[in-house]
Each structure stands twice: as C-alpha cells, then as structure tokens.
Amino acid sequence: MAHHILGPKWGRYYVGPIQMAVCYGVVIANALLGGQCLKAMYLVVQPNGEMKLFEFVIIFGCLLLVLAQFPSFHSLRYINSLSLLLCLLYSASAAAASIYIGKKSNAPEKDYTIVGDKETRVFGIFNAMAIIATTYGNGIIPEIQATISAPVKGKMMKGLCMCYLVVIMTFFTVAITGYWAFGNKANGLIFTNFLNAETNHYFVPTWFIFLVNLFTVLQLSAVAVVYLQPINDILESVISDPTKKEFSIRNVIPRLVVRSLFVVMATIVAAMLPFFGDVNSLLGAFGFIPLDFVLPVVFFNFTFKPSKKSFIFWINTVIAVVFSCLGVIAMVAAVRQIIIDANTYKLFADV
C-alpha cells in the first residue's frame, strides 16, 4: 500500500523495514515467553531444579528451528488452526484460575494503587500504551486480508468484528480477571502469579500449571513461525532460483541456512535480554503505533483526497499527528525501561 500510494521508496525504506522489525521482534518476544513457560513446567516437575531461564529459551529455539522449515504460509494453515484453539484454551484456563485464586481464603492481598513516583507513573502510562498497541494491533490484519477480493466493505467489517470477538474472549478476560485477582502485583506472564510467594506452593493443582503452560508453549511456537514467514519470503525471493523447483537442492540449502540463522539470532537475543514487557513496549512504540494508527489515515487522505475543509480530513490529520507524537514518547519510555531493567538484571539473567 505504501509502495502504490506514497511511492516505492516509502514502501522499501520506511514501511517495509518497520514491518520486518515488528515481525522479528515478535519472534524474539515469543522465544523469551516460550522459555519462561518451559521453565515453569520444569519447576512443577523439579521444584528445586537448577536449570536457568536461558537454557529453556534455547530449548524453545530448537523447537522453532524445526518449525521454521515449513516452506510457505499455506503449509502453516493447520498450525494456525491449532494456534487459535490453544489460544482459547489457555486464555480460558488463565481466567478461570484467576477467579478461583481470587476467591480463596488465602488469596493474595489485592492492591489496586498505582505505585512509583510521578516520573515513573508518567513514563509507565506511555509504556503501557505501547504494550496495548502491540497486543491489540493485530486487529488490522483480518481487516486488510478482507480486501483481497470483492465485495470489500462488508467483509472488512466481518473481519474486524471477528478479531475483536477473539480479543474479548482472550485478552480482555485474562486482563480483567488477572488484575482483579492480583491487583498491581499482576505480572506480564499471569501464570507466575499462581505461585504463592510466601509458601512457595501453587494456588492451583500442579497438573493445571503444567498443562496451561504446555498450551502456551505450543501456541507461542505457532505464532513465532507465522511472524517469521514474511521475513523468510522476502529473503528467499533474493537467494532462491525461481527456475528451480521449490525442493531442489539449490533452493533447499539456502532456505535451510537463512531460516536457521534467523531463529538462532532471535534465540540468542531472547536469552540475553529476558525482559518480555520491555520488548513488547518497544515493538508497540516502534512498529504497531505507526503501522496501525498513523499510516492508515495518511493512506486515506492521499488516496481519496477529501477536502481540506472537511471533517474527515482534519480528524485523520489529528489522529496521525497525535499518534506520531505518542509513538515517539512511548519509544523513549520503552528505551528508558529497558535501561532501568538492564541495570537491574545482568545478561542471561534467570528471571
């Protein structure tokens, strides 16, 4: 869209790099979160185990290394279906467990106050906005996919409604029940709140912890592979020989090397910098805010050229300016938080 509306350079040097950075950032974040879930499963079996987080990130990276060899988006269709089912399962499990724990007599004390000084709170607001943009920004994907064939208008609305239905069933339920049960102590990975820090025992049965983390690991692996695929497609358009068959030695070897290299790099970064929330906020500030909230309204004004006296022109302009400023501030807040956490934790920290 940027290529055709704004010109080839905008597509190649602005939108394209942001999209690729977002896709690769999601792979890194999923590798980290997958490692955290594997570690939680390990601690259920071996409560006094000595394995570190980075070791589990590497194990998850090995799983991605295998799944990354699927040749195309079409070959991922069954993995996508499984991913949706797993997303619904672990979201329902997390919400049910939060309600169960919140009603227990020995439930954690609920504190809903906002902690920190004024500076921390202000930066925290912009950091949270960036995380929200990352979490809910995927809503634009089915809306864009609906434009592939006519009629566009009705299908775009159906795609958007479907996406928000999934969002309400998953993100909203987990966020609301998790915050109700744990207040400001709710962690980025809500499953970690299911452990009673005082007794070092879980509020729920250990088999439940193991199962819900297994659902999450499998779903994260599917999501990571999907977000890795656009990068693979672009790189392979350069290194592959279109005159040869897809599974010829000439095309298979470069594909295997490039895909493996990118998975290894993502795994190393995830193991070195285990700050999941910080990665999410940086992704939102740098990628999802401009792609979801700035560029669409700019594209509209450039394509349909509404009168500069019209309401739609000015509301689109205001949205673009406000979210551009928000993106810059959120990026500063995200980098600030990464620096703070980097001073708190060392490389390959076991968090």
From TrEMBL:
Keyword entries, A-Z: Amino-acid transport, Membrane, Transmembrane, Transmembrane helix, Transport
Residues that span the membrane, as ranges: 12-33, 53-70, 82-102, 122-141, 162-182, 202-228, 256-276, 282-304, 311-335
Record's keyword annotation contains Lipoprotein: no
Domain Amino acid transporter transmembrane: from-to ranges: 1-339
GO cellular component: membrane
A Pfam family this chain is assigned to: Aa_trans
InterPro entries in the record: AA_transpt_TM
GO biological process assignments: amino acid transport
Keyword hit for Membrane: yes
Main subcellular location of this protein, as a coarse class: membrane
Cellular location(s): Membrane
Protein name per Swiss-Prot or TrEMBL: Amino acid transporter transmembrane domain
Organism: Arabidopsis thaliana x Arabidopsis arenosa
